[in-house]
Amino acid sequence: MLPQPIVEQLVAIVGESRLLLEADDLQRFGVDRTTLWQAAPCGVVLPGTVEEVQSIVRLANQYNLAVVPSGGRTGLSGGAVAKDGELVVALDRMNQVIEFNPVDRSVKVGAGMITGQLQQFAEEQGLFYPVDFASSGSSQIGGNIATNAGGIKVIKYGMTRNWVAGLKVVNGAGDLFELNKGLAKNNTGYDLRHLFIGSEGTLGLICEATIQLAATPLESSVMVLGIEYFSEIVDVLTCFSRDLDLSAFEFFSQQALDKVVAHRGHAVPFQTETAFYALLEFEHSSPDVVDKAMELFERCVDKGWVMDGVLSQSLSQAKNLWKLREDISETLWQWQPYKNDISVRISRMADFLGEVDQLVMEQYPDFEIIWYGHIGDGNLHLNILKPEVLSVDQFHSKCANVSSSIGQLLAKYEGSVSAEHGVGLLKKDYLHYSRSAVEMDMMRSIKRAFDPNHIMNPGKLFDC
């Protein structure tokens, strides 16, 4: 429970209705999409201005009160979990478009703006915000930036980092920083903006962001290809990307397709069943591009890499094909999956996946494994489904052993234990597989500089 003096001062900052202390609110704002930890915040405060955020952080420093930033709470690594009596600072009210500049093709928004709303705003201006993923309808821009969110179009447009032209942040001491100010060129020493991108709320609170927008993309077509061996997915990617400007190249397994078709009612793309499926998207300005895609498809069939395939003939068919991939994550939640969000270089993916499959089959034969991911940028999602015979605690204990073994493989392949979901609570014990001891000490030094009293999202990313 919050001491009464703190309650009174928070009410003075944001108003009585914007300090939430009821159990239902604490539960709702105290967790993200992970299910391993119980929400136990001391309160939830909803500031509406940067000045209110500053006042809250300074008050937290005065009382040595830990703060957990909260966005859309769609994270998958426990980065927004408040389990130890922290104060949750939710940015939901800071969701306005602050300024739009058509000359610069940029928009300044509050950190609480929903990703999908930013995409819609860009579309209304005849522009495009390309960072897209399944949770765009509920995730917030501040959280996207704090985790450097990726998604389905990274192969063409890059991560969130590529689109952040400026930030207004409050650090752990309550100081206000305006970082980069929307400049395209600013070669004046350390770019502190990039420290906050991907920092998972451990350095401070992102309050406003200046986002660069892109030109509206051309009309797109979608292909789904049936492929028997994972190594041949990489061959297909190499073949298509050499001659087409791909905007996406995704993959999923037959098991993933079976789950989505059974539980979402989607139609299979074609009758041939294969071990894996590749979904690729490309923009085109003329029929020649589509003809080139079909030529490449026929080349892959002749090589024996592709068993069957389909090319979208309409916008609605393209959307339906995308649903086969996009709906996998939501479909799997009913099995309480243990998720590994990992990456290796594309050239090493086939060997890595083969070793992981062998490891899991030998040591954990009762586990059902579902593979899917963003193959075009080397990002694999390994989902281990909970067997009915295991309790949640038993299941996660076994999965921790799996993650350690996979971490050792990632170290061998020079990969990452977290490709796009962040580290949070879930991955911090495995961070050393991707970061050296010197790097981790340096990150702790950076945190001390921005958050001297260690109040910002403590216990996430690493322990100080």
Automatic annotation (TrEMBL):
Its cofactor is FAD. Residues 37-216 form the FAD-binding PCMH-type domain. It comes from the Bacteria. Keywords: FAD, Flavoprotein, Oxidoreductase. PROSITE patterns: FAD_PCMH. The keyword Transcription regulation does not apply. Pfam families: FAD-oxidase_C, FAD_binding_4. Belongs to the FAD-binding oxidoreductase/transferase type 4 family. PANTHER family: D-2-HYDROXYGLUTARATE DEHYDROGENASE, MITOCHONDRIAL. This is FAD-binding oxidoreductase.
